[in-house]
Amino acid sequence: MAEETKAMEVEKQEMVPAEETERTREVCCFVPRADIFETEDKIVVVADMPGVAADSIDVTLDKDILTINGYLEPEIPEGYSLAWAEYRIGDYQRSFRISNEIDREQIEATIKNGVLHLDLPKSTAAKTRKISVKTA
Q1: What is the pLDDT, as a whole number, of residue 28?
Q2: CA angle 128, 130, 132 (to 5 degrees)
Q3: What are the pLDDT digits (tens) for 69-96?
Q4: Best exposed site among 61, 88, 90, 97 by fewest CB in 10 Å?
Q5: Which residues contact 38 (CB under 8 A, 6 or more apart)?
Q6: 42 vs 48, 70, 85, 123, 129, CA distance in Å?
Q7: Which residues are bridge partners to 116 per DSSP?
Q8: How far is CA 51 from the centre of its chain?
Q9: pLDDT in tens, 6-32
Q10: Structural domains in the chain?
Q11: pTM
């Protein structure tokens, strides 16, 4: 029973609840899974968005909210009709709250093989720096 409940919780987190957003497209909307890494100079967000092309992604920054949207159109080969589908296709949407330590002007986004990379450089003031100790 506990495993079934856990599986249901994971499934809930994979899709954006319909009551949280107003959508104009009649497709499912998934929350892309993401990993976040930090180095001394930047924070890197890696998000899975399989099938989404670079020209179908919107990355926006509004105040402290960084939002990624990926749009995917289902492809059915010409002359075929879908008989059975186990793989669900839909859009992707996820938001992250970023701190003032991020240099907003230098954020970069790239996608390759369905994986979106967001580079969030730290501002100069936020970077760790070594302070030398002098003898008095």
Answers
A1: 85
A2: 155
A3: 999 887 788 999 888 888 788 899 999 9
A4: 97
A5: 44
A6: 20, 23, 40, 9, 14
A7: 47, 111
A8: 14
A9: 444 444 446 555 455 555 677 788 999
A10: 25-74+87-126 (2.60.40.790)
A11: 0.73
Distance between CA 75 and CA 72 in Å, rounded? 9
- Cβ-count burial of 58 within 10 angstroms (0-12 exposed, 13-18 middle, 19+ buried)? exposed
Rounded CA Rg of the chain: 20
Counting DSSP H helices and E strands in the chain, the numbers are: 1, 8
| H helix or E strand, kind and range, residue 52 | none
Mean of the pLDDT values across residues 54-60? 94
Tell me which amino acid residue 51 is. G
